[in-house]
Amino acid sequence: MLYSPRMGGALLHTLFDVVAWLAAAAAVYWLSRQGLRFPAQSFELPYIAALVFGAGIGAYLFGSANLWLSGESGIARSVEGALAGGIVAIELYKWCAGITMRTGARFALPLALGIAIGRIGCYFAGLDDFTYGTPTALPFGHDFGDGVLRHPVQLYESVAMAVFALVYVLAVLNRNAFVITNGFYLVLAYYGAQRFLWEFLKPYGTLIGPLTLFHLLSLSILLYAAVMLATAPKARRLQNELLA
């Protein structure tokens, strides 16, 4: 399978980005129809503003830094960078506003769906997107237009996040209080772990041994999620607080 035209790839990338945002919005709406009580703070304007600002800074900061470390020039965005930037911005906002409760629960499914769909756009964007994998001899290797079969790591990540989304939906339908309340930290842990693995299949410049900037960022996200999960409230208390 071969797809290489630049304009067509860019158009499809944009299209899938739009679909990813629409799917995330649909996920928020679906969750609101399930009789769950998520923290109201996560829909307040200052909270959203901090999230958008932090995600934007993180996306360009880490995306561009990885590009430069890989010997490429230009400006780039990174979904993992956006995730890290958003986390830092929200934690700082909550600290300044004196908010001690956990506010990310409603974003677990939107995040998983958004990444699952958005990565398909990265796949169609081809070589210009710089998210392709290293060369491979496996039969499902993909030629992005330069005659080299590469790991379609974008699709690996897409499938992985789609699996999480499915498991999460089943947990919601079964009223699993722990999964619902801690879904954001579960999706962060899952994302960080799978992203760490896929980074070994990408042609990025390394920082420490075989580890790239995104390896280290994935570990940081995974560590953050692990700490938050380890300090999560008990299941019975969650049942009373979350489920209508």
Structure description:
Helix 1 (6-32) packs antiparallel against helix 4 (108-125). The chain has a domain at 6-38 and 111-203 and 227-242. The model is unreliable at 1-5 (pLDDT under 50). The protein has a two-stranded antiparallel sheet. It has a two-stranded antiparallel ribbon with strand order 3-4. The termini are far apart. The chain has nine helices and four strands. The chain is 64% helix and 4% strand. It is mainly alpha-helical and 244 residues long. Strand 1 and strand 2 form a beta hairpin.
Strand and helix map with partners:
Blueprint: H1 6-32, H2 45-69, H3 79-97, H4 108-125, E1 142-143, E2 149-150, H5 153-173, H6 177-181, H7 183-198, E3 206-208, E4 211-212, H8 213-230, H9 235-242
Antiparallel strand pairs: 1-2, 3-4
Helix pairs in contact: 1-4, 2-3, 4-5, 4-7, 5-7, 7-8
Q: Strands of the largest sheet, in order across it?
A: 1-2
Helix content: 55-70%
Query: Helical region count?
Result: 9
CA(first)-CA(last) distance? 49 Å
Strand content: under 5%
Any key phrases for this structure?
244 residues, mainly alpha, two-stranded antiparallel sheet, two-stranded antiparallel ribbon, 4% strand, disordered N terminus
